[in-house]
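Example record for the data management plan.
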Amino acid sequence: MSLKPWREVIHPHKDVLEGTFQESEFAADINKVANGIAPPEYQDPELFFERTYITEGMSLLLNSVIRRLIGKGGDPVVQIKTAFGGGKTHSMLAAYHMAKTEKPVSNLSGIPKILDSLGVVELPKAQIAVLDGNALSVSQPRKHGSVIANTLWGEIAWQIGKEEGYAMVAASDADGTSPGKEVLSELFKKYSPCLILMDEMVSYVRQFEDGQKYAGGTFASQMSFLQALTEAASQVPTAMVLATLPESNLELGGQKGKEALNHIEKTFGRIEAVWKPVSTEEGFEIVRRRLFQPVLDSNTRDAVCRAFAEIYPQGGGNYPSETHKSTYFEKLMAAYPIHPEVFERLYTDWSSLEKFQRTRGVLRLMAMVIFRLWKDGNQDFMLLPGSLPLYDTDVRNELIRYLPAGWEPVMEKDVDGQNSEPSYLDEKNPMIGSVQAARRVARCVFLGSAPTVAAQKVRGVDIERIRLGCIQPDQQVGRYDDALKHLVDKLHYLYSGNERYWYDTRPNLRREMEDRMDRFSANEHIVPEMQKRLRTLIAGGPFAGVHVFTSHSDVPDDTSTRLVVLPPFDMHKRKDKKSNAIKAAQIIKDHRGQQPRLNQNQVIFLAAEGDMLGNLISHAKRFLAWDSIVNDIAILNLDQYQTKEAKQNRGDVSGGLNAALKEAYCWIIAPAQETQANGNVSDLFWEEQRVSSMSDDMMIAISKTVQENELLIQSWSPIHLENVLKTWFWKGDRKDCLVMELWDAFCRYPYLQRLSDSNVLKSTIEEGIKTNDFFGYATSVEDGKYTGLKLGTSGMVYMDKRSVLVHLDDAKAQIEAEKAVAPEPEKDEGGTPSKAGDKHEPYETSTAGDQPEQKLMKRFHGSVDLDPVKASLDFSKIVEEVIQHFSSEVSSEVKITVEIEANMPKGIKEYIQRAVKENCSTLKFNIAEFEEE
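Corresponding structural encoding:
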């Protein structure tokens, strides 16, 4: 069976449907009923009980009234005490209609069932007195023909016994003194069964000022009368007093009302009330009977309720646990077409507000809701919290009037309405807008959180109840979760914490954050923040140095491989040969300050994706704004929750900025040239490779990219080195190449491979000379011969200006020639070669072999002055050409001490001192001191 909207299954009553209801129509007024001027739904007993659901509490009350009127028990005096709008007067009115028996009790819906339970066939007609404390005046007597009733007792006597009855208390009524209980007992016996209904007595008694006498008597005489009244009713088996007492301070009317209530409660104190407040489930039926006609199609209603009931267990932990029980289907059926969650919020949360009338307030609100939704053609299957038309002025005002001042802008901007942020989100995002997810979520949060107060330990509504208040059959709960996330990011009056959400009249810190975002400029704040983070995110790896947002003059021009991270505005896009990133990289590749850069093949560049610049800047601004708020906690006078919120948001946004940087900085660009068939090289071009954003570690991802795509080589094969030598160095008659000349070429020319450092070349050479297949190595060339020539053997390779690589043919030729002239090894007496001959290593020669053994030096000490302008380059050369010779030996101990002395006659500026101190601390200087002279 296909589901149908509520409007096709059940119709509202005519007055609700047409919007003709008035506030008074929802307020039971027993005085108007007694005078015959109430609306039909209150005046007509049949219509009244047709639209009245007899709750458990009302049933107990009517049971007691019946038993009392027939003289078979029941309480003689009953006080009804509930909160404002709790159904006191409505219950008293039910007793009135039942006891008056103007129509057969069989026609009064619900009453025959109570009579049957007591074995009563019919009720005797009772004499009824109705006293409405709001309608009576202590100084204005009421005229009934020739009788003028001044007091409560005069009014009761006239109403149940007319002139005869009044005559029994006439003297006491005239002088305002209470009649004794015996007089009242006689009155009740004569006119029994009788029912005395006293509504809003506190409103009447609080009019008596201390020490003042009125036509109605004095305050003391009222207390004496009430005492006599209760005792008289106890003495007459067929007499009953039913009185309503307020529970909320709002109904007491000040200090005099409290005093009156205290005295009345003492008088009635020994009588236990039978009243039980209306439960939420009973409220379902009360509201439905009053607002809706009978269901048109019960099968369709059942199908709708079943579909809703099946959603919740299938959703697992997405919904409150009580919705998983089979009894929740019964709650849906009882509440239809209004979802039980609406009643739960109104009866649990809103009824806690002092001005909200528990039953009357729900009726008023839901009548307005139903009228507007019917008018707008609402197609929901049931009326949920997310269905409430808070965009409607009447509905909005009805709710706001119960709340403290300040809720108008909250409703207008953050909850519902044409210009609200939730409406904008629904229009902007089709995925959530297709089900009005943002507006429905906002309505749920408002309905569930607006009545809460800051003093509560647990504020707001949890996400399970938000989902419950929005979801309908065949909808995806994820859309509402997404909408909630958008709202948390955008709204100014929405708070969240511990997975709960609530509105407050105070703007949250988000508005403060957004206002502060405009304070931060790109060059002064945003770029430095990104620079600081990237220095942390991109550290280590196969590069000798990582230079983040560094100008070309500060990128060293040495033989070490450098990764240069370009500023965010120097962006790159795929296959864009003229991107800002390539232009910036070209400048750094070509220049180092005012000088041309020599080692152009040792720089690799990392650039940001062009389409992500706006996102980067937004993330950076948001972090800087939250960071400034945390730093200004004392100035902003933030409370504990706001402090926690600010710190948490700063942490979340900080993580978001890091993630945005990882995602944005995804382009590796490196200068390159290709070898052409004619032996020349192509024009320089920029090779681009995209870095994967899947890795949590940026440097790991960058390293993997440059290595897999051979933009940076950390391990190389000798055969590739041999090909380079044959192509570029061993041409014509040239059959050798200085090792340092080769290394310099690798560092300078983009048509050669980019080696991560000189050790890669050194290791490749050492691997190559182990065989007879590639090239030879000599420590120097002297008099046309190669000294320390190695081929087909392991040996140490030195990266200095004398070492050479020798063409394979030449290396073999020299070794063969040396073999031919070498003397025969000496033999012992048995003709066996001596041990000296056994020590000869194949294809290794040394011109120093015939020299006498020299004493080896054991210590070296050197000192050199460096030019401060190019100290970085010079020191790098010292490491490569001097220090590495010592450090390469396993048994060596090398100690390097850098001594710096700077004299500035005009004085060292403060910012320089701060920078030097900080850097020296980071670099772990043993001594770093400034002196005045």
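Summary line stored alongside the record: Residues 640-664 form the longest helix (25 residues).
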